[in-house]
Amino acid sequence: MMATLGGLFAIDQGGGYSFSSTWPVLIIVFGLMKLAEAGLPKAPVANQGGM
Amino acid sequence: MEPIMPNQTDVSTLPAGPAVAEEAAPPPAAQPAPAVVGYCRTCGRPLTDETKRYALGTLFCADHAPSVDAPPPVDPPSPYLATATPLAASAASPAFAFILGLIPGVGAIYNGQYAKGFVHVLVFGLLTSIVSSSAMSDGFEPLFGTLTAVWVFYMAFEAYHTAKRRAAGEQIDEFSSLIPMEGNSGLPVAPIVLILLGVVFLLGNFGLLRLSQVLRFWPLLLIAAGGVMLANRLKGNSATGGDREQ
After folding, report:
1. What's the whole-model pTM score?
2. Looking at residue B102, what is its pLDDT?
3. Chain B: residue nearest A33 by CA?
4. Quick check: B71 pLDDT over 60?
5. B224 contacts chain A (CB < 8 A)
6. Statement to judge: residues B95 and B119 lie in one domain
C-alpha cells in the first residue's frame, strides 16, 4: 500500500496523472491484497476478522 | 622478510619446545557469536535461536515472555495478522480511546493497532479527497460528506470498544472489529466489492464512465444483497438438515 501510495504521488509530482484521478488504484490494490491474503494459509495466531 | 606488526608474533622464531609453544601460541580463535534472529519486543535485547521466546505473535526474551503457550510458527507471521500486545487492564481507558478516536488513526494507535490506524487515516483521506475532487460535480456531496462524518464517529466508537476489550483482558488482533473480509459462504466478498468499486471510480475519474449513469442502477445492489442473504439462508438450512419445502 505504501509503495502504491508513493507511486501515485510520484506520478502526480511527475506531471502525469493527478492523484485526484488515480486514488481508486489504492482501493483496487487493497482489495487485491486482501484477496491474496484470503487465499493464503493463515498464521498460527489467526485473527477474527479482516480488513 | 615481511615486517612484523607490534601485536603479531613471529611464529617462525619460536623454539620448538612444547611448554614454550603453549605459552607463545596465539589465543584460540573466539567462537563465532550466535546469529541474532530478532529482538525482544519489551526490552530490545538481541535474541538468538536459544534465547528467543515466541508468544502472542512476536518475539520476547526469556525474562519478558508472557505465560501464553503459543506454538512456534512454521512460517514468519504476516504483519497483517500480527497480534497487538495486550496492555495491562489499567492501561486501556475506553473514554480516552474514544476521544483519541475522533482523530483519524490515533485511536487505533492508542490501542496498539498501527496497521489499522493507517487504514483509518487512508480511508479518511480518501473520503475527504473524494469530497474535494471534481467527481463531486455530479451531486455526490451529501453522500460522501455524510460518509466522512460517519467514518469519524465510527473510528471513535471502534477505538472505544477495542479499548474496552483490552481493559477486560481480551486479546485483540491488528484488524479487530473491522469489516469481515469473508462472507458466510467463504467467498471473499469484501475484497471483490472493493476491487469493483475501485475500478468504477477509476473509470469515472478518467472519463470512461459516468458515475451518475452507474448510480442509476443502485437498486441492483439491493437485489444482489437479497440474493446473497437468500443463498446463505438456503445454505444454512441445508447444512443443518433443515426442511426444504419448495
Report:
1. 0.42
2. 92
3. B191
4. no
5. no
6. yes
- Each residue's pLDDT tens digit, B163-218: 888 888 777 776 665 555 555 556 677 778 888 888 888 888 888 877 777 767 77
Whole domain around residue B51: which residue ranges? 35-77
The answer to whether the Cβ–Cβ distance between B122 and A27 falls below 8 Å is no
Instruction: Calculate the alpha carbon distances from B231 to A29, B190, B234, B245 in Å.
Output: 29, 17, 5, 15
B64 and B100 in a single domain? The answer is no
Residue B7 lies in a domain: no
CA-nearest of B185, B232, B93, B119 to A33 is B119
Q: Say if the Cβ atoms of A34 and B190 lie within 8 Å.
A: yes
Residues B185 and B130 in one domain: no
3-state class (DSSP) for residue B60: strand
Which residues of chain B neighbour A20 with C-beta distances below 8 Å?
129, 133-134, 205
The pLDDT value given to residue B103: 92
Average of per-residue pLDDT across A18-35:
85
Number of domains in chain B: 3
Q: Which residues, 6 or more positions from B144, have their beta carbon under 8 angstroms from its beta carbon? A: B127, B130, B131, B136
